[in-house]
Specification:
Number of helices: 9
Radius of gyration: 20 Å
Largest sheet: 8 strands, antiparallel
Order of helices and strands: HHEEHEEHHEEHEEEEHHEEEEEH
Structural class: alpha+beta
Strand order of the largest sheet: 4-5-8-9-15-14-13-12
Number of strands: 15
Length: 289
């Protein structure tokens, strides 16, 4: 079903945020071929409308090097939680108290493993700068030819109820009542060559990069341990919350018709949300077993 597939891929994309973030605004600071980004907590990053517009205006990564590997992971629908666990490679944790009305319709999906690498190319960057009449900052030592690889393990998505649906012949969207439970091992990023911090500093100094956004990311603290979640604070709310025995992030929209909770625990990233109140979602998130 196209609608359910769109919902699932959207959820998977949310968990796969570090795949993009690690390349556009890298966070970690090691230079060996070991894992340098394995978040153990999540934190909201305020994205203003101006930030969003500036990010959309930035050139693609291909302007600065070569991107190889998976761009969008494939998605498979299976018949049961046990099949989803087998495909994902880990045992799913599911809520024990899903409302009866939602539990009548359950769908299980798993994305395929995704691995994407970016190799910086000084010649490409210089060519782009000449074509766009931009003065780029000098490259730090070791950045030319450095490769950064992000890996997203299979993501399991379980949806209950009826997701929102849109028809071209109708105005707006039909709002369904649904719950989505998304989980996966935390994404990882490895580097070889210049440090990821060097790449981050270089990109953040270029014209067009939002200083407001860069300042917030740098204020996170230990970048290898924290997953930044971009939040449009003109449209959404975000607050720290205790969930599943750890600290997570509660996200809601200003309309009050939907909410989600995101957290990490024991090496896995979780997201539970839907067209429910924050208190309802929290109860469901706390009941995962």
């Amino acid at each position: 079903m196209k609608i359910r597939r769109s919902l699932a891929l959207g959820a998977a994309a949310a968990l796969g945020l570090p795949l993009a973030a690690a390349f556009t605004i890298p966070l970690a600071a090691h230079a060996d071929p070991l894992s340098v980004f394995q978040p153990t907590q999540v934190r909201a990053i305020s994205v203003t409308p101006a930030d969003a517009q500036a990010l959309r205006a930035l050139p693609p990564l291909e302007a600065f090097g070569t991107v190889r590997g998976t761009r969008s992971p494939g998605l498979d629908e299976v018949a049961s939680a046990s099949e989803a666990s087998q495909d994902a490679g880990f045992t799913l944790r599911l809520p024990s108290n899903v409302p009866a009305g939602l539990a009548q319709s359950v769908h299980y999906q798993v994305t395929q493993r995704a691995r994407t690498s970016f190799t910086f190319d000084q010649a490409k960057a210089a060519q782009w700068a000449r074509q766009n009449k931009v003065a780029l900052h000098a490259l730090p030592a070791g950045l030319n030819g450095a490769t950064y690889t992000a890996t997203l393990q299979p993501v399991a998505i379980v949806t209950y109820g009826t997701p929102p649906r849109t028809h071209k012949s109708e105005r707006g969207a039909r709002r369904g009542t649904f719950l989505a439970v998304v989980q996966a091992p935390v994404p990882t990023v490895t580097s070889s060559g210049a440090t990821l911090q060097a790449l981050a500093d270089w990109f953040s100094a270029q014209p067009g990069v939002s200083k407001h956004l860069v300042a917030q990311i740098k204020a996170i603290g230990d970048p290898t341990q924290t997953l930044p979640i971009p939040i449009r604070f003109d449209k959404q709310t975000a607050a720290k919350i205790a969930v599943d025995g750890v600290q997570g992030l509660a996200i809601g929209d200003e309309t009050g018709i939907g909410s989600a909770i995101v957290w990490t625990k024991d090496g896995k990233l979780y997201a539970v949300g839907g067209t429910l109140t924050q208190s309802q979602v929290l109860v469901l998130a706390d009941s995962l077993k």
